[in-house]
Amino acid sequence: MKQFFINIYKVIKDEYWGDPVWSKVISAGIIAVLGSIITTLYLLGKSLIDKISFKEAFGSLLFFFKRATLINNFVILICIVFIAITTVNFIIKFIKDVRQKRKANLAEPAKEELPLVPFEPSVFFAYRLAGAFPGQRGLEWYDDPKVIVERLSILFQKPIKFKSTEREGFSPHPLWWFRETSSMFIENFEKLSKTKVLMGVKELEVKRMAVNIDQAYYKCFVYLEVKGEKRTGLYNTDASDIKRHIETFGYSWEEFGLHKNIPIRREEYDDGAAIIKGKVVETFGANLRTRFLTDYNFIIAGHDSPFNSQRFERGTDKYFNDILSDKIEAERLFEFLDTFQKRER
Question: Domain ends where: 107, 134, 153?
């Protein structure tokens, strides 16, 4: 109860008292309430002094209001009653308003205050690698999907998204993924199961991982390989389509939206509406997803890594796809990455 009245006081002070209209209404309400209290105290005092009952004291006051003066006192009484009714209605409405605002404040999630990034991207990445792979030096393979998900969860623990800054060399998105000519920052990570994660919009059923922790911190990277998954069934994709994707891109994938855990077609996601169970449903706010139908691979490094360069784009044109098709070993890619220097970006 005490907290309730404290909340009322805060709402009055912060949201209503500064308003020119509400301040007048509140003032009138306070005057009416104080007037009622003073009148009651006057009647109690009169009954004690004149040694009459409270009812008789009230009757004498009522008689005064019934007497005729230049203005009929009964009219004054009606005005007082009207003010009292208005005051009561205001108090009831005000209490309801306070309760609604309190419920809204409880329901509204607290806005996340982003911190400032403490290091340059490659330094930040090397720092996170040390926490996720303590004691490791050089390159090591990890083949247990559960271990891979556990270590990635440590690597991508919050925060990985920071405030924008004008400091040269500092990025609000220090962690990026790279694959040939494609790249993107990683601002969200979620564990979906013991063997599957969500990285950005990518659903990744992990297969194996290589982690390189180099003495030259800017050469640190994570190589991640994921398994192909079953199709969602949203599209009429068959084996020939997947084969054509592999011949063209080196892998196959599909994009879709996720509305309340219900998959919808990419076109429906773009339109903001979908047909679900025969009915048109608004789907604004749905989440975009990418699912790989064949094996897929990429590396993770800091935004200012030398791998974020034209040389990487040109030089890895076939490495990633050739690894997936078993034409070469992944170590061939790692040897090429070891030739990069800090300022190549």
Answer: 107
